[in-house]
Design brief:
By secondary structure, the chain is mostly helical. The protein contains eight helices and two strands, in the order H-H-H-H-E-E-H-H-H-H. Helix content is 60%, strand content 3%. Keywords: Membrane, Transmembrane, Transmembrane helix.
Length: 175
């Protein structure tokens, strides 16, 4: 057990030492990241900015974007998140390269409306239609399916069971 603790300590310190050598040596191996990337420029060291605390904030922002191997670490992290079908920026990867917005997918899987809710919804639409007709306007109401309803076979694995059980419930209600 002590051997493993020693080995872990040596490896950790070695990695930190390598990062320190790269950083203080001015060696910043980076690659480009695609997408929207806001570059922070390295702040100039001035007495006034150091005293009012602005330099520390600007330097922290710059360093967060420019530490050695940052772009490689970001790319590896994104690849792991994508391949494990985790949510990245509210988007989840499904089968066949399809991407599903988490919010809309969950909304389509919440459940079916009962008869009272549907009747209430229809009454509200009829009210709106009547008010628009009084003003000489037409109401055009378009119901579109979500991607989850059109491509259920491509849903991420953790949404598929909810989709199929929801459809079974809906079929029972319709019958």
């Amino acid at each position: 057990m002590i051997k493993w603790k020693y080995l872990f300590s040596v490896i950790s310190i070695s990695i930190m030492l390598i990062f320190a050598i790269f950083f203080f040596g001015g060696i910043m191996p980076q690659t480009t990241l695609n997408g929207v990337v806001e570059q922070n420029i390295k702040p100039k060291r001035e007495f006034k900015t150091i005293m009012n605390g602005k330099y520390q904030t600007e330097y922290s922002n710059w360093f967060a974007d420019n530490f050695p191997f940052r772009t490689y670490i970001v790319k590896i992290y994104d690849e792991i998140m994508f391949n494990t079908e985790s949510i990245v920026n509210g988007v989840k990867a499904g089968k066949n390269g399809n991407l599903f917005g988490e919010y809309f997918t969950k909304q389509s899987l919440i459940g079916t409306l009962d008869k009272i809710q549907v009747d209430n919804y229809a009454r509200n639409l009829k009210f709106i239609q009547d008010k628009l007709e009084e003003r000489g306007k037409d109401l055009i109401y378009i119901i579109t399916p979500s991607k989850a309803e059109v491509l259920p076979e491509d849903l991420p694995w953790n949404y598929r069971a909810a989709y199929y059980s929801l459809n079974e419930t809906a079929n029972i209600i319709i019958k």
